[in-house]
């Protein structure tokens, strides 16, 4: 055994830091979005393991140290890949999507293989954390065996855009949206990213630089809406906006004079709240920079400083304006403001901090009860995005959000229900919230989503149920709400993509007496034996755990195992399974031997 000396403490701290860094990366908004976000989500779920290991006084043996060192190398690779995606050229990533997909696959395999080397059963961690890590390992195992389907429409659009001189504007519009190159500011950042690539890679990029430059110019034409080659992009936008664009002070004077109509069209205004034109401000800044002109100093409240998260003061002012609309606006204003805050909260951690500090959470909680379904969707999704920041979880719960989130889960649109389930999972990471969420009646509604939701909704529901069922009281709630039947249907549907989740939840429930009884009544032995014969390593392990719980103290299940010829599968698992699977299979075999002794003449 190796003592947990300073070097071992350092190893655990480094792993914890790597997970914290990865969890803090902003959401991806380009062609790599799905692979990037899935990797971040899975890695984040490893955090409780290392938080518990930090507090452990037990020793690590050489096998455990080697496993953690392998995981550190894998997480360092993941961190570097995510950083390059986050900071790199979006056009380059789209053009090199096959290679990047391979990079994500390699990192996924690296993490899964490292996790396979860690003997979780030997670690000084709680059963709840062990079960969560096993579920995460199962997710990595499943992801290792398959690649995400390519975006064929994106590939086709890129291929056409590279060949044609007169490109269909709809194709360029789709590329602009999918690559999130929608504004001049987006294009400026992309141009800088390409420049950095040229500096670092030089001639190694070959013809790729010409292709990216060509596409970037075409996308600029789309954003600007005028392909005139003799005028700079920023000048064209300024010319386009010269009329009818009015200064804020003039608009304010018009409104202060009592007018409720547009000065140009004479149409009645829906509201009189002023929203800054950030696109035009960005274009003006670009033009000033290109022409060596100093941008005029900001006036008014954009110069006020506040403590807390970083970010531009005008962004803070915009957030405050949006929050004012949440508080005092009409239904249309509230819907629009909640939608904007949803996107801002998704964008980065600074926004999550400042939006919460500015008082948005109680107002968003109020909107969970909105009669407008779209407003409700925006509100619950904004709270989901805000909950990513750990400190916000307590603020959300303290604002009385849990009953309202459960109500959205029950009565909202499908998108709102899915995001409500994801929000409950996020909040349930905090142990005391597991109790409150269960007491608020969330589990029966999550079971309904598990039965009738979209594939994504079922995954969200299963993840939330698994995490909530770590608390003993919620095991009982889940069983009494009838979860065993749906789980058995998912388990028997091998093509439904929910076998891993169903078995993981069943393994938790089987540790409780009521869960054990309910599972036994569902005639589970045949499917459990089949999984032990043919399933993935983690599924075989969980199936053996459920089987052991059922067979302990109940001879009838042992006889069914014998009738089905399950002994051979258990013997093979006891020799070649995971450490936990070996133990569980060995324990069931011991029980089977006792039955043989009893039945012998």
Automatic annotation (TrEMBL):
SUPFAM superfamilies: ARM repeat, RING/U-box. Keywords: Repeat, Transferase, Ubl conjugation pathway. It comes from the Eukaryota. Signal peptide: none annotated. InterPro entries: Adaptor_Cbl_N_dom_sf, ARM-like, ARM-type_fold, ARM_PUB, Armadillo, MLKL-like_MCAfunc, PUB12-19-like_N, Ubox_domain. ARM repeats lie at residues 359-401, 400-442. Residues 245-294 form the U-box domain. Its EC number is 2.3.2.27. One of its GO terms (biological process) is cell surface receptor signaling pathway. One of its GO terms (molecular function) is ubiquitin protein ligase activity. Pathway: Protein modification; protein ubiquitination. It catalyses: S-ubiquitinyl-[E2 ubiquitin-conjugating enzyme]-L-cysteine + [acceptor protein]-L-lysine = [E2 ubiquitin-conjugating enzyme]-L-cysteine + N(6)-ubiquitinyl-[acceptor protein]-L-lysine. Functions as an E3 ubiquitin ligase. This is RING-type E3 ubiquitin transferase.
